[in-house]
Design brief:
14% strand, 7-stranded parallel beta sheet, alpha/beta, 243 residues
Length: 243
């Protein structure tokens, strides 16, 4: 049986950046990547939560994670991220962008400008900045994979979900444009719509919902990892996780 630290693991030797890694889907994907041999770079705002995840990764037999505790709206930090990864590893094999914020559920005319700007900055602009910073590193990998997390609201034009839905629609356009730009390279770019699952964002949007009725984030990790696999060749597509 292969372990996280031997050459038989699926992502042995791979370097992977995961945003939103302190909890939810990001944490589940980071843990799964590490369990299959990846060296994970964990991005989230909360240092303590990242340290707890690193402890769990090492208990699972994974490599010590690289912790990057910063807010994705600190764009200068994103710009420095690419250089730091290049200096340490010389390349990047996987980007999983799972960070998201809901903002508010409100009629568009009632959304405060600072709330709108925060949601767009976190959910959309930060992803463009990540591409800008990390694309050269992904191109230096023979198995570069980028996965962006979206949601049905991006396509359903759901009332009152304005900032979040617009940002997710923007991510879908962003990812498809990026996919077209790297189509003649080894890099593969795709979107994943995980559907409803247990998360802080979901609880904020549906405060009366019983979380026990929702899937755990870990149940979705394998679907995301499939898009990160070096042998995965679909490109520029939206993958909807099985419900």
């Amino acid at each position: 049986m292969s372990t996280a630290n031997d050459g038989g693991a699926r992502f042995a030797g791979a370097v992977a950046v995961v945003t939103g890694a302190s909890r939810g889907l990001g944490a589940a994907v980071a843990r799964a990547l590490a369990a299959e041999g990846a060296q994970v770079v964990l991005i989230a705002r909360t240092q303590g939560a990242l340290e707890q995840l690193d402890d769990q990764i090492r208990r699972d037999g994974g490599l010590r994670a690289v912790l990057a505790p910063f807010d994705l709206t600190d764009f200068a930090q994103i710009d420095r991220l690419g250089r730091a990864i290049f200096d340490r590893f010389g390349r990047l094999d996987t980007l999983v962008s799972a960070a998201a914020t809901l903002g508010v559920l409100s009629p568009l005319g009632h959304v405060e400008p600072e709330v709108w700007e925060r949601v767009i900055a976190t959910n959309l602009t930060a992803n463009w900045r990540l591409i800008r910073s990390l694309d050269p590193l992904l191109r230096q990998s023979a198995r570069g994979r980028a996965v962006f997390v979206t949601a049905a609201e991006a396509r359903d034009a759901t009332a009152y979900w304005g900032p979040y839905a617009v940002a997710k629609a923007g991510i879908e356009a962003l990812a498809r444009i990026y996919a077209a730009e790297v189509a003649h390279t080894p890099v593969r770019v795709n979107l994943i719509d995980p559907g409803p699952f247990r998360s802080r964002l979901r609880a904020q949007a549906f405060p009366g919902e019983d979380p026990a009725l929702l899937r755990e984030p870990g149940a979705l990790a394998d679907t995301v990892l499939a898009l990160c696999d070096p042998g995965y060749e679909r490109h520029g597509e939206l993958v909807v996780a099985p419900r």
